# Entry
Amino acid sequence: MQALRGTQDILPEDAYKWNYMESAIRRLCSCYGYGEIRTPMFEATELFQRGIGDTTDVVTKEMYTFTDRGGRSITLRPENTASAVRAYLEHKLYGDQQVHKLFYIGSMFRYDRPQAGRYREFHQFGVEVLGADSPAADAEVIALAYTLFRELGLKDLVLHVNSIGCGKCRPVYRQKLIEYFHEREDKLCDLCRERLEKNPLRVLDCKEEGCRAASVDAPKITDYLCEECQAKFEALQKYLTALGIPFELDPRLVRGLDYYTNTAFEIQYTPLGAQSAICGGGRYDGLVEEIGGPHTPSVGFAVGLERLLLALEMQGLIPAPVRPRHVYIAALGEDAVAEGIRIQQQLRADGVRADMDLQGRSLKGQMKQAGKSGADYAVIIGENELAAGEAAVKSMADGTQENIPFENVPKYIADKESGVK
Ligand code: AMP
# Structure
């Protein structure tokens, strides 16, 4: 049996890297005042159809949808924003008229074509600011993502920003876009031809070669923004400049999910090649209403953690894991093992890594194991030691050895480590 295509195991030698990223995320989110939210891995399919949009690639091609034994249509979450909004409504968090700042870390599922940086189960860290209208909120979430990457040491990041307008100005642009693509319909993929009338913006985001080529001279949304959207977009740029965050305007950036309004942004790490977007997000002022709640202007982003990890590894930015002191206790016979276990328990309580044989090895075999395991000390309890009530404590670094009464072993090791003679 093998893990399914597009999924992967994270073994102990890599898991610490994930913990490293996640600790940095939690530390930063706490400074920015974001509270963690954990939502279920699966939801009613309708939530994503309504939230993400039923002409998007995610909904039309990529969802893991099944009927459960009760006949309900269920979908493994392909992203977390719709679920976070569902939870926000279900628990009436809007009731206090406050801005709610949430973050999440977890698995998402998309039936995508697996390749480096693209998986079927992948992990995202994301934030959602619900109930905030000001472009300062857009600047804050961008700053949070940017600061995270900078704190982790990543260089060569490029922030792309765009405004994709609102319900007032986008229809005019939509019409222009439909006209433009109608003239090039033969170049579009089947799906884009089909969704052109309903959602022409999707063509701009399509990954098919023909659609990309046909989009090159497409009209730009930024030429059609209404006064209000233009003012918000300018304010965002002013705030980013004040924060010292460099950005590039990218009028073709529309993002793959239908719920975005106004700000859309992406942070790219170009050495990752085709999957260079490590973070994508934007404003979604209409989503909460779409899911049945009150008007709640909101903004957020999601970071692909596999891609972030690839980028960190490419730049050698993951520090070696902190290694606790390490003791191997070699004991032979039940009585010796009982003494060993007692010492092991105390050492562990003191924060020392303490290993013992669990495979019935000889004392010689256990000592070999102690060497292999990279332990700093071996604590040896053979027949003679058991009779004397003292363990032989051997420094694996220099081979020196001393006999220490059983009950003093943990303190002896602690003193040695802190340099006490
Ligand atoms: P999205 O939720 O589509 O806005 O994507 C946000 C971020 O999630 C992207 O910028 C990627 O870093 C990451 N991401 C999206 N889809 C995948 C995938 N199939 N595999 C790995 N990472 C992904």
Observations:
- The chain has two domains: 12-169+225-314, 326-414.
- The chain is about 40% helix and 20% strand.
- The chain has a mean pLDDT of 94.
